[in-house]
Each structure stands twice: as C-alpha cells, then as structure tokens.
Write a structure and sequence with these properties.
With about 450 residues, the chain is of the alpha+beta class. The protein is about 35% helix and about 20% strand.
Amino acid sequence: MIPLRTLLPLVAFIAAACSLVPAELQRELLPSNTSYKTAEAAYQVLIERHVDKPTSTTLITGALDGVVTEAKKEGATDNALPSSSLNLTGSTWSDFAKFSDRLDAVVAATPNADKTLLERAAVDGMAKSMNECHTYYLDPTRAKNFNQPQPPVSGIGVTINKPSTDAPIEVVRVIPGTPAERAGIKNGDKIVTVDGTDVTNLQTDEVATKVKGPEGSSVTIGILRAQTTLSFTLNRARFSVPLETDSIIDGNIGRIEVPQLVGAVADEVSNAVKRLGANGAGGLVLDLRGDPGGDLSAAVDIASIFVRQGTLVYQTGRDGNRTPLDVNRRFYIDSQKPLVVLVDKHSASGAEIIAAGIRANGAGVVMGTQTAGCVGTGQPRDLPDGGLLLVTITKIQDAKTGADLNGPGKGIVPDQIVDQPTNAQGDPQLDAAVAYLRTKVARTSVAPELLLAA
C-alpha cells in the first residue's frame, strides 16, 4: 500500500500537470466546459458513433442553422444576430468551443428566447445535417413515446410515411371501408395539420399518435393536395390493417400486398404464396409500394421465401467491415414462379432489403419507382435533457453491386421504371407488372416438345 504521505504529493503533481496545459490547447483536445451539455453530448455521439463519420464542420454548421431558425421564431432579427462566419478548423473540441461561444452570443441577442429551446434546436440541426432518415432528435416530451407499444385505439384508416426529413407526412395507403376512404382522402395527400396543430416537422409515429384516438371522437386533418389546401373532419373508427392481402388477378397472376413488416407477416406471406400456387397462379407480384418497413427479421424471412440461399444485403459499420445478411433457409418455398417486386418512393427500410435481396440473387425483377433510400440500423442514445438522439450506426449495401442504399438519391432503382401519375387512371405500375409476367408465364407454359421443335 502506498503511504498517504506519498500519495498526497502524487495527487498534487497530477493536478499541477493538468494546469500546465494551455487554455487554448485544452480547447483543442478536451470537451469544452460549457453549460450546453445536451448539445455537447449529441455532438460527441455523432462524431464517435455515426456510420458516416461526420466532420465537426458539418455538425457545427447544422447546429448553427438550427439555432438561427429557432432564434428567428422567437423574434430575433438578422441585424441582432451575429453575422460573422466561424473559423472552423476541423479540430473537434476547438470547433465546439467556438460554437458554444456563438450560441452564447445568440442567447444574448435573443433575450426573449428560451435558452433550452435554442440548445435543442442546435441538436436537431446536427441530426438533420446528416441528411438521412435514421438519425434524428426527439426532445424529452417526444422521447417518452419512443418505441412504446400503443394501447388499442381507433383512427381514420390510413397508413402514412415521411418521404424525407424536410417533407411533410404523406398518405401512402387508404384502407377500404374506413372514415378516410369515405371522406375522400387519397394516396399522395400530405398531412400538414392535426386539429389545427402544424405537424410538418414531426416524425411518422408522432403524427400517427395525434391522428389516432378514442372510437367515435372527431379529428380534423389539414391536407395539402397538389397546390390545394383541404380540411377534413372525421370521426375515428376501429379498423384493422391486414398483415398482407392476396388475390388472383388477370386470370392467373397472383398478387401479394404487404403494407408493413410487423408481427407474423412473413408467415402470412409464406401461406399466401402456397395458397396462390394451389389456386393456379403462374406468376407473382409482391407489392411493397408504401411499405415503410419494420422488423428486420420479417424482411429477411420474406425475401427468403423466394431466395434459396445467398446474401441479401451487407451491413457495414463505420470501421468499413461488412457483415452479410443471409437468407433464413427455413422460409424458402421450392416451387418458384416468375416474380415482380413492385416498389415506390415510400418503400423503405425492410421493404428495400427485400427488393435488393431478391434482385441480387436473380429471384425476380424490380419494377415501379426509386425507393426511399431509408435503410440502416439506428441506435437510440439518451441525452442529458431527457431527450433521445437516434444515430445510424450501420449502413446497408447492395449484395450484388456493393452500392450504399441509405441516403438521398439512393435506395433501389427498379429494373423497369414505371411512373404512377397522381391522376392516373387505374394502376399503371401493376398493369406493367402483369404484362411482364404474362410474357414469362407464356414462355414457361409452352409444351416441352414444342420447345424442342423450335
């Protein structure tokens, strides 16, 4: 044991050594000694954990954008706010110290603003600067509902999705026989208000929570349709969203619609494939349009129905190491038919993994429009203010091409692009899929002896 008289000088020496580090060097090397602990924590998590390895310049610029926007909401003018640019050098903690000083100046220039709200706006700005859908900030109020099972409630009968971080929530499916269908709400309508409250900056699950409520109660939805603003007041009703629906169309083409990857949906799709085969389906359409994803295991299992063996996609961390996401052989059905996977801009996450995996392994073709480019693995991190920062820690890459699938302009580009104009008659994308399958089914239906004679 070290005698106490020896230990005390040692402690004194360590303390003295710390004080020998110049203040400017401390700002370069160490987390700053500011009161903005929530912003500091978020900044450190993004620097150290995000798969894209953001620079301090990217994060600080995003943070300042968020702060200035919030300050102006609180009445600050351009003349009152600091206007000089920060001399960011790329040094992690030196740049944060400069940001902290600038935030102090904004607070001083905006006496009526809530300092906490300005700091949270900075965190939100950092998250948005990553420009991808799996990284975002939830303040303490919104964080309370994160990943919590919702009690049984009723709603208006739509499924919704947020196409990008800056876009409003969009209706991607109107469920038949529900208040939304009876009121005339349409696919593509954008929800901008709920009961008079602006919801354009909220996440999908937050808007869904506001729309749902007790059966029979009313809710007023503000809709943007093209350039027209509409308002619908509806009485909520109970309804159920089927895990999948299937049918035989155009004689002998089977269609399976999968609205979301939840629960036992993979088992339901497996049963549908067997049922359609027994009913004479010669080709299959797997309709993933509007499917926002859900359980990763469900995505793997559904793709595995059509892919005997192989890698569906790769998961890649910030260290660059790729981990193959392989099929679940238990789900493969050994009676394959020509397959089209239908996707659109709202097909996201697990739906994109299904489409990518099926195509990479030659099990089917992809048709429709480019997918959301919203596929990755996120991790929630607690922040000092009680909020949550969701951080993308792995990206998903195409198993065949190696291309990143997450981010603006990425996702799955279909083998055959088929647009779906807002005012289109019928369903041009489904019609194109059926026409393609018709040619494939006709070829496989030719008698063997005729094939030999040719």
